[in-house]
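re: ur msg from earlier - yeah i can do the TNX complex, just paste it... oh wait u already did. ok heres what im feeding in:
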Amino acid sequence: MPLLQPAFSRFLVASLLVACNGDDKGGDSGDLTLPAPLLVPAPVSLERDEGSFVLDEGTRVVAPGEAAEVGALLALALRPGTGLPIEVVDEGGAGDLVLDLDPSLDLPAEGYRLEVEADGVVVSASAAAGLFYGTQTLRQLLPPATLSDEPVEDLDLRIPALRVEDEPRFAERGLMIDVARHFFSVEDVERQIDLLAQHKLNRLHLHLTDDQGWRLEIKSWPDLTAIGGSTEVGGGEGGYYTQEEYQALVAYAAARFVTVVPEIDFPGHAHAALASYGALNESGEPEDLYTYPGVISTPLWLEGEITWTFVEDVWREVASITPGEEVHIGGDEAIDISAEEYAEFISWLQEVLAEHGKTITGWDEIGDVDLVAPFRAQHWWHEDQALAAVAQGGRLIASPAEHTYLDMEPDDYATYGQTWAGRINVEKAYDWDPVPSGATEEDVAGVEAALWTEYINSVTKLDQMIWPRLAATAEVAWSPQAAREWEDFAERVAWHGARLEAQGVRYYRTHNEVEWVELEEAGE
Ligand code: TNX
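and the outut:
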């Protein structure tokens, strides 16, 4: 397999930056004529060199063998905004963007090395995921306008010469979207998946069921969607994913190195199921559909034998369309259920899912139940329960409400959103460490932000609440704690706003903390 690489022998390190920042922005630092790239999330290390690589009509993506899919995605991403043909080929070298997938490289699967010299660019990785992340960094080295879906005239397509070495701090980095309170279509979710992947996030947790709606087809219990999926908060028409649509979504995500983690939330939050089937209620009569925003958390009828059969049926189907090992069983806010009944249900469910080859994640509350490791507790509010999970060998997904709950208002100027966990501006989303006191780095599997959607009833609001705060979460999850500093991030995220704008993301410009950069000002 001939793989020509540009020579990197004359690698002159003109400046060394841990993480990356804008210290030498503005072209006044010796020979470095281009501003330092303002990358989000910050890489582990970035060293600048003199000169630059120029993308032009002849630039190709060289992506042999297993690098081909990542190469195709890179070309697809670069063509519209640059207006360049960017062919994908198997062989090449000088003047090209070379993707080098070499399993013998001493890099973790999601790590990469990116080398830019005047005569070529090489991204190297030991696995396709790392290669993909290297290409996401590469995209951020170009002007933000290149991220738009139409060519912009007179763009400066120089990439500063540099070398980046990078790998994530945490293995799990994600976003939860509650599609139960308000339903969002496959296209709306896929658009967010593209954005997640650009931020090196690798997990999308879908909260598929709640009191106000049931959003995934279950073939053995069709009224869950026919009735439970027929509305949403506010009484709108709701919606649901057929299993085929859901599988297509999972595949779309997988192609971008994002794993979809499905959540079916039991034994609380079960109102939509109880409204769909009379038989699931002690009375034999279905509940009325519930379309208000307030949390009611109607519990399953655990005395009814049919309830356990129902839960088994649901999970058999969901497990069968979940390629990943992890599933989310919910388990939060099980009001009106005794601790004993709760524990019996959760440990039984862990066994049921183990038979399907699945490991479970649940909200904090499952930490009090005797479980079999491995399992994960998603820490949102109850630190004692999260630490109880750790004490019995569980690992944490860090989602503390005061830093990661994207349904909270971003600041006092916001016109909608919740405040029970406080207001979360970008600094608040950024300035925290996912390792709680009493736990170690190894106890934390990952970091996830959560968008609950009681008050999020449009795609614009989805954008505004997720962005730019999720960019902060992405850096919390990816970049080394020691290299993170708010002042530095504030400058990078300001510039990053232009990248979001170029893609039509209606991000919320928080007040009085960041000097947001307009796309037009973001250097062409
Ligand atoms: C708490 S967080 C909930 C959700 C609500 C959210 C609103 C969690 C596990 N449960 O049911 O949507 O607060 O902020």
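cool cool. The CA atoms of residues 220 and 313 lie 7 Å apart. ping me if u need the other ligands too
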